[in-house]
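quick q for whoever's on today - can somebody do inverse folding on this one?? i tried earlier but teh output was garbage lol. tokens:
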């Protein structure tokens, strides 16, 4: 069950390279079919759900998983249901889930509560859980590591990656291991939602980077094992640092990603690295138009007069 996901571009980043002294590349996962890396795993998870006779698929989500699950469920002719934290999902992602026909439930709680309830629902019904707890998701997402190695001709020295529910860093490490290589993994969490950094569950995670607003990652142990095995680390970046990297990528590199994606670049700029570095940009900027408009310059208005238009252009 596929929407032809994968084969996303690996884009050189000369401005970030100059800032950091590294050779930096951007793996732009925002060009997957629903605009995020989630599609790599969802194609496998939904295919497996069909094979296992599931009548529906379900997930808890901060947005991207909801959009991806809804799209692949629609493609498969399955019912899709997603639980999202009320008022905490970006507009672009909510629109996707609704347009693909999923039943969207807004929970008066956070993502961690949504996931706990989702797990209980699927245990009692013929519904497939398609969160990153599903091992098929990891099998699909590991292909990002294969692609980077193929695109570069070898593994990078360092991989920088945003960390929310920790399924993606788990999957990339699995992919590199199967490729028989071992770059250093640098993971970055938002400072207001950094349980792996702080070493304990964050009960009320808060960050502008909604995709990584998670206080109790489902793949906590797997991710920490990956950081340890790769001689890497997981560290925190502030919302201001994330938004600065977000703006830098859009204005200087011409790459529009969602705020959570920019955490990988924000972390590289803040903490540094050496050698050839790949930063994973997990989602497209149109996922969160509200944040984009709040950070961008205002629209310039003028009348239908040549002099007015010229002044507006040149001022």
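ok took a stab at it. sequence:
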């Amino acid at each position: 069950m596929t929407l032809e996901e994968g084969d996303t571009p690996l884009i050189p980043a000369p401005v970030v390279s100059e800032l950091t002294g590294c050779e930096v590349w951007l793996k732009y996962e925002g060009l997957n079919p629903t605009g995020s890396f989630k599609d790599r795993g969802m194609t496998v998870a939904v295919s497996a759900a069909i094979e296992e006779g599931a009548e529906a698929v379900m997930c808890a989500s901060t947005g991207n998983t909801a959009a991806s699950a809804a799209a692949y469920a629609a493609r498969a002719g399955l019912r899709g249901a997603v639980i999202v934290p009320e008022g905490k999902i970006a507009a672009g992602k909510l629109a996707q889930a609704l347009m693909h026909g999923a039943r969207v439930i807004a929970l008066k709680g956070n993502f961690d509560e949504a996931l706990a309830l989702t797990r209980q629902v699927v245990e009692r019904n013929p519904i497939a859980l398609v969160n990153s707890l599903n091992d098929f998701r990891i099998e699909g997402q590991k292909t990002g590591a294969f692609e980077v190695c193929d695109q570069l001709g070898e593994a990078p020295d360092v991989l920088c990656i945003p960390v929310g529910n920790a399924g993606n860093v788990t999957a990339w490490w699995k992919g590199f291991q199967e490729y028989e290589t071992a770059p250093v993994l640098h993971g970055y969490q938002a400072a207001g939602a950094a349980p792996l950094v702080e070493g304990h569950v964050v009960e009320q995670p808060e960050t502008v980077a909604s995709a990584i607003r998670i206080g109790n990652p489902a793949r906590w142990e797997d991710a920490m094992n990956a950081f340890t095995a790769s001689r890497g680390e997981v560290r925190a970046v502030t919302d201001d640092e994330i938004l600065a990297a977000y703006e830098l990528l859009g204005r200087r590199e011409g790459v529009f990603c969602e705020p959570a994606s920019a955490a990988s670049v924000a972390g590289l700029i803040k903490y540094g690295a050496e050698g050839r570095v790949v930063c994973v940009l997990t989602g497209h900027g149109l996922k969160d138009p509200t944040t984009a408009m709040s950070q961008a310059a205002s629209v310039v208005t003028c009348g239908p007069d040549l002099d007015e238009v010229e002044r507006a252009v040149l001022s």
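fwiw The chain has a mean pLDDT of 96. also Residues 10-36+137-294 form a domain with the Rossmann fold fold (CATH 3.40.50.1100). so keep that in mind when u check it
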